[in-house]
Design goal:
- The protein is α+β, with helices and mostly antiparallel strands.
- It is built from three helices and five strands, in the order H-E-H-E-E-H-E-E.
- Among the domains are: about 20-45; about 90-185, 2-Layer Sandwich (TATA-Binding Protein).
């Protein structure tokens, strides 16, 4: 028994997107060619005009004259700017705390209370912190990087707070002022 198969006369579904893409590419190419021809004709038209004589204004363009440019609408005068804010000098201060606490404990023990103090008194902010290790990978000390606004007052406030938080003796606040590096012990003075 022979089976007859009817040939499939439908177009392949994968062929339809290719035809659409080819048609779009043809349209884009035709537009590009048309634009090139128009630009070329404009260039040739400009090249056929003689240059203006020295001291003479250039001749008006051929074709219909363009209308005079419209004047932009006048805007009301802007209010004067507010007076400049006085510049605040920020001082970088490095708190070197001789405590071997882990980073999470450093945050809860020192950074969080300091953050609250600095924000409440508006005397600066914490901008970083870290942990220094010994060669045997044990913690040597922790540090907190601060930006302080009123250096003398803020240093004393931070110093007293770190002392209150239990910073061990030997801990210091290091900073630079007037080009001179200084170190202030937390437990002296």
């Amino acid at each position: 028994m022979l089976l007859a198969c009817k040939p499939n006369r439908m177009k392949s579904p994968a062929l339809i997107p290719l035809v659409v893409i080819a048609f779009i590419a043809f349209i884009m190419l035709a537009g590009f060619v048309f634009a090139c021809v128009v630009i070329w004709k404009l260039i040739q038209r400009g090249a056929n005009q003689p240059p203006p004589a020295p001291g003479q204004p250039p001749p008006p363009p051929t074709g219909t004259p363009s209308p005079a440019p419209a004047q932009p609408p006048t805007l009301p005068a802007a209010p004067p700017p507010p007076p400049p804010m006085p510049a605040r000098t920020l001082f970088m201060v490095y708190a070197k705390i001789l405590d071997n606490v882990m980073p999470d404990e450093r945050g809860s023990k020192y950074e969080d209370p300091l953050w609250d103090l600095l924000e409440r008194d508006q005397i600066g902010q914490i901008v970083g912190g870290g942990t220094m290790l010994n060669e045997d990978k044990s913690i040597a000390f922790v540090n907190i990087d601060l930006q302080l606004i009123n250096l003398d007052t803020a240093l004393q406030t931070v110093r007293l707070k770190l002392r209150e938080l239990g910073a061990p003796p030997g801990s210091v606040l290091e900073y630079e002022t007037n080009g001179e590096f200084r170190s202030l012990r937390i437990h002296e003075g």
